[in-house]
Amino acid sequence: MATDIRIDYYPTHEQEGIKFRRGHVLPFGATMVPNGINFSIYSSEAIDCTLVLFERGELAPFAEIRFPEEFRTGNVYSMIVFDLDYERLEYGYRMDGPFNPEKGHRFDKSIILSDPYAKAIGGRDTWLAKPNWDDVYPYRSRLVFEDFDWENDHPLETPIEDLVIYEMHVRGFTQHPSAEVKNPGTFAAIRSKIAYLKELGINCVELMPIYEFDEWENSKENPVTGGLIVNFWGYSTVNFFSPKAGYAATGKFGMQVDELKTLIKELHKNGIEVMLDVVFNHTAEGDHRGHTISFRGIDNKTYYMLTPEGYYFNFSGTGNTLNCNNPVVRNMVLDCLRYWAADYHIDGFRFDLAAILGRDQNGAPLSNPPLLESLAHDPILAKCKLVAEAWDAGGLYQVGSFPAYGRWAEWNGKYRDGIRKFLKGDDGLVGKMAQLVQGSPDLYYYRGPTASINFIACHDGFTLYDLFAYNEKHNIANGENNNDGGNDNDSWNHGVEGETEDAGINQLRHRQIKNALSILMVSQGVPMILSGDEMGVTKFGNNNTYCHDNELNWTDWGLLKKNDDIYFFARHILRFRRAHPVLRSATHFQHRDYVGSGFPDISFHGTQAWKPDYSDSSKCLAFMLDGAHAKNGTIKDDMIYVAMNTYWDALYYELPVLSAGRNWYLAVNTSMPSGEDIFEIGKEPILSEQGRFLVGGRSTVILVGK
Question: Average pLDDT over the chain, rounded to whole?
Fold first, then answer.
């Protein structure tokens, strides 16, 4: 019986027993096809390309196949190679072309280059395992099998206003011995902490960079401590499509893809979204003194922003800047994010130094950045959260003005700065606070409060505990004479720099942490907390711990017991937010009563009801939310009254009079000892005096009217 035979299943060329034929130009990268592997790579200026094939772990290649000229279509080289062992294969490329840095060309055919589209990278399979420095090909492109059983898993699509984001470093979260987990510092270890995340009230984890990077990059002995300085945070990408093998317990077996997918699947089963911190502003290749790994040797002029003299623009502060609005690079970024959304079921992305993504090839800000527009309207990314860090190291600061296209949210750096200054008692902040707790309508009037990712501490800077324990940064251990890290911390040590035995100071610091968490959780917008802040983690005043694989970055789980009052409070204030939909509006307040309840949706007060004091010397602000307006009046909630006092003495606040049949109940009073500072939902005690309340110095009070 005759059958149709596809001729592209069969070779047309042979070299030393290896058979191959012309390939398919799309997709880029290495993909499995019947009987073989299709390799496709782009370079606008190369004059020749050679495919280099290795057995896994072998120092010398077993074959090098030059692409015949007829295998090139436009600027794309493609080839199908038959009968390769998919599981044992590592591959790379040699690119030949001009080496003329002044014109942007840095070709060197002696270097074997990684595939920008590789789905896994070998050579750095175990965290901090000493590399073979003589390896001719240290970052090895590999294939992965698309055989993971997701069952019925899919991205959760939780409304963004309902999220509580938890910024986490994969290794730091479970590496400390106190974590008491199997395979500490890995994707697998996080699974054993999912119950903890649920108990805390987290429904979205934001993972600091998990793309393949090299922790040995710029490693050196610390001249101060004698320890090893490494690239711990990972903001220096080697490959955008590959999860870091060193973060996987199974990385040494090449199973990092399945281990990460298993983590995401388990998080989703427990109602927790996964957001990735992605770094498309620069790569690990650095400036002209850096290593050639991939992009530079394939097509330097396409992938990087270059000065007219051929040097690298450095808007990232790390040596180079990815040329994201070049159509080829833009498509790579799109392909990458589509891959993570579709193949890893990722729920959202936070873009590091995202202002760079809006610069043209000469570094000038674009009025209509094509990459940002493409991401916003991409059909595959349509349900993904897109979050911008709306500034870069080149001085472009776009908080409130980042090109949003109706889709982008922002890390609200102005929220962080304003809350910090208010909590330490600075003058002239009350009017600003009235904006911040509403979701910054002064910044996001046309975009809604969900454009504001509210945070007070993140990986970059002081932890929440250190914010109230240090006046100055203490970065000596970084080996840079304390010159690195920001100086504008807006912190206050409350009388003693660092740790102290003074019970009064420690009590006040804990109260300030509770004040910060309270304000964060009653603010409109999307709250984000730094991993460990719920238990009072400290980095001992170091505000730039990017290089430390030690206790400065490892979460000390013993703090759950030491600071049990902070953890108890954090857990309950997150539950309070979850219980009250009036705290989670997707639209800005209208400052009027549009449902006929007798109260406006939001009202502001001072020590006198209905009379806020916005003078420079004022340190008091209260606001009331009418639960009849929750979710634009579609859901009924209680009245919520929040009183903030950053004055050093207690003050009486006159309370708004509720409608007949309702009373004020005490939910939160941070001036009280643990156990009396926050109450379970439904167990709040009624106020004995309904007309006024004494708010302690440097305290926050939350009342529920029902």
Answer: 96
